[in-house]
Amino acid sequence: xxxxxxxxxxxxxxxxxxxxRNLILLFFLTLVIADAQGQVEIYNKRFxxxxxxxxxxxxxxxDTCFFISGIGxxxxxxxxFARFDxxxxxxxxxxxxxxxxxxxxxGRDFQQFSQDQWIVSGEGADNTGAYVIIVILNSQGxxxxxxxxxxxxxxxxxxxxAAAGIEKFENQWFVLMNIxxxxxxxxxxxxxxxxxxxxxxxxxxxxxxxxxxxxxGKCAVQVGQNFLLGAWRTNFNTNNKNFTTxxxxxxxxxxxxxxT
Length: 260
Hints:
This protein is mostly beta strands. About 15% of the residues lie in helices and about 50% in strands. The longest helix is centred in the first third of the chain and has 27 residues, at about 10-40.
């Protein structure tokens, strides 16, 4: 026997079911409203700061403000540094340009290592070719020191980038980079290249980790007295087919860079 819908709606079981549906709907709406209230936008600002191009690459937050490192350009490009208050208002900013060289602080490793000193990596170039730069600045954005790291076959080979940035170990700096190695195949592969630097940015040693496939450095993590280097390994650009991709980890000794 088929029952009329009104008869069903008056049945006790259906009333309970309707009540449950209403409670579930009310609970869902409560969650949606609570979530929407939690997503309050404090501010949303865009900045050019008078430059033709401006890129924020790395932000460091302190108790009273936040500092930004990046790249800016007016007639020429340079290393950008700024201090903002927590309302998003710039306290001051500065564009540093090198004498007869380009300074591009692309690194996402911007960090404060003393009360008034900051460090960040990037790329530079002059009439001899390209290189990695390690820049130290004070809290006003003044450049205190710039160190260069060249490809081991410079100037014939110039492809070198700071892949995973700067990691501090005790009183030294480790910089994980990528370089081209033309000796591995007809198409140059992308290899890991590690530099150990003193606190004053003097290079103590460099290490080239050769492999026929391409390796793209992604991270460097301290593990006791060793560093664990993480990379993405692939035969893309060295093979025409049968592409493979792997995660690659290597543990190195911080004393000499040897694989342990």
